[in-house]
Design a protein that fits this description.
The protein is of the alpha/beta class. Helices cover about 30% and strands about 30% of the residues. It folds into two domains: about 70 residues, Hypothetical PUA domain-like, domain 1 (Ribosomal Protein L25, Chain P, Beta Barrel), CATH 2.40.240.20; about 160 residues, SPOUT methyltransferase, trefoil knot domain (Alpha/beta knot, 3-Layer(aba) Sandwich), CATH 3.40.1280. Strands 6, 7, 8, 9, 10, 11 and 12 form a seven-stranded parallel beta sheet that branches. The relative contact order is 0.16.
């Protein structure tokens, strides 16, 4: 039986812990775990904890953590993904896959052709949702450190704030990724469903970004981060 693994949004240590209500409900009522079942918990610090359920009730679950392990190492390549804001499942997919592929930071970008506009309370709810998407991806893929999920920002603001050894904007007419020297930090800009305008690409170049392409075919906004991060990890990271 596969060992169940859960993120706990609180510092962990060896010994007994009462789990937060959300995880307690999921473990006890949804997965129907029982006393004596083994679990593995992580808190985003890079450490993992093996333990056993010692109490499983309708509203509370207690676990005894008995062994501390070093978690999965992060890629030596730190990637900040600027992902054009897109609708519903497409944005979820991009964040999920970017997390699995080792992105250390993800920022939704509001650009000229974005079809989504988020304000105030709705933006807060989406940010919380995206963070949960990233948490679930970490639980599934074995990653011990959560990527930082930032609130949506305007493209111009993100371009000005971006700092990295290598900054790339995806564009069909450009040099391949392999033409660049190996960086330790990388900023990737990917457009929304309608793509970036020519003016936005030029704006990115003016802020130190290099145009880069992933091949002869035009990729969808949710496909591009999967391919871009895979190629980057293969060239310069931990693939």
């Amino acid at each position: 039986m596969r060992l169940s693994r859960f993120f706990i949004d609180a510092p962990l240590s060896l010994g007994q812990h009462e789990l937060p209500e959300t995880q307690a409900h999921y473990i006890g009522r949804v997965l129907r775990h029982a006393v004596g079942d083994a679990v593995q918990l992580f808190d985003g610090s890079g450490q993992e904890y093996l333990g056993e359920l010692i109490e499983v009730g309708k509203k509370s679950v207690r676990v005894e953590l008995r062994e501390q392990l070093s978690g999965q190492p992060e890629s030596a390549l730190r990637v900040h993904l600027g992902q054009g804001l897109s609708r519903g499942e497409r944005m979820d997919w991009a964040i999920q896959k970017a997390t699995e592929l080792g992105a250390s930071e993800i920022t939704p970008i509001v650009s000229e052709r974005c079809e989504v506009r988020l304000k105030d309370e709705r933006a807060d709810k989406r940010l919380a949702h995206w963070r949960q998407v990233a948490i679930s991806a970490c639980e599934q893929c074995g990653r011990s450190v959560l990527p930082q999920i930032n609130p949506p920002v305007l493209l111009a603001d993100w371009l000005q704030q971006s700092e990295a050894d290598l900054k790339l904007v995806l564009h069909p007419v450009a040099e391949p990724l392999a033409s660049h020297a190996k960086p330790t930090t990388l900023a990737f800009l990917i457009g929304p469903e309608g793509g970036l305008s020519d003016a936005e690409v030029e704006q990115a170049k003016a802020c130190g970004f290099h145009a880069a392409r992933l091949g002869p075919r035009v990729l969808r906004t949710e496909t591009a981060p999967v391919v871009a991060l895979s190629v980057a990890q293969q060239l310069w990271g931990d693939f």
